[in-house]
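can u do me a favor
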């Protein structure tokens, strides 16, 4: 049975490790980890989760975007499991956008990211998938990909002045 896992918080060493490649997608421990990640993410208002965030240092993350109070402008994207992901191309063009992280509750950062990326990953059934992503989904991918390298969105900020509290973020969104 898939189970809700505890989300590891910033400061725990696992969030600073480089995650291991998944050697066999079909392995039962990997499949149950994926199921747990799907359940854990669905019980949050997040738009993505990476395996290290539940204490499993493997190259797996999920992107699942829909508008929520956390991300009111998010587009719809069905939950997609991405294993051993690679970024083959990043646009020079970047834009800043608000990001939060389930492992860093209470704050948001104005983070620069490439607006377009070309990616490749292995699916939950072991197939290779290539995609061209842009905008918010490209942002989520880059954020989750960073988790697999031990990097958080705080490391991507241009200045600490680009950090605000969740409370102020909601005021910004409501006043738009
Ligand atoms: Ni995160």
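np, heres the sequence
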């Amino acid at each position: 049975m898939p189970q809700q896992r505890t989300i590891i918080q910033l400061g725990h060493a696992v969030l600073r490790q480089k995650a291991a490649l998944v050697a066999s997608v079909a392995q039962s421990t990997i499949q149950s980890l994926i199921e747990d990640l799907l359940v854990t993410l669905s019980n949050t208002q997040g738009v993505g989760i990476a395996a290290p965030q539940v204490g499993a240092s493997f190259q797996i993350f999920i992107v699942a975007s829909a508008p929520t109070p956390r991300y009111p402008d998010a587009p719809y994207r069905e939950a997609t499991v991405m294993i051993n992901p690679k970024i083959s191309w990043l646009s020079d063009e970047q834009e800043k956008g608000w990001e939060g992280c389930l492992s860093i509750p209470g704050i948001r950062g104005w983070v620069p990211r490439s607006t377009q990326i070309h990616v490749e990953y292995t699916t939950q059934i072991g197939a290779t998938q290539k995609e061209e992503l842009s905008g918010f989904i490209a942002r989520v991918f880059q954020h989750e990909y960073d988790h697999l390298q031990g990097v958080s969105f705080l490391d991507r900020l241009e200045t600490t002045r680009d950090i605000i509290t969740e409370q102020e973020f909601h005021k910004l969104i409501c006043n738009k």
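DSSP finds three helices and eight strands in the chain. hope that helps!!
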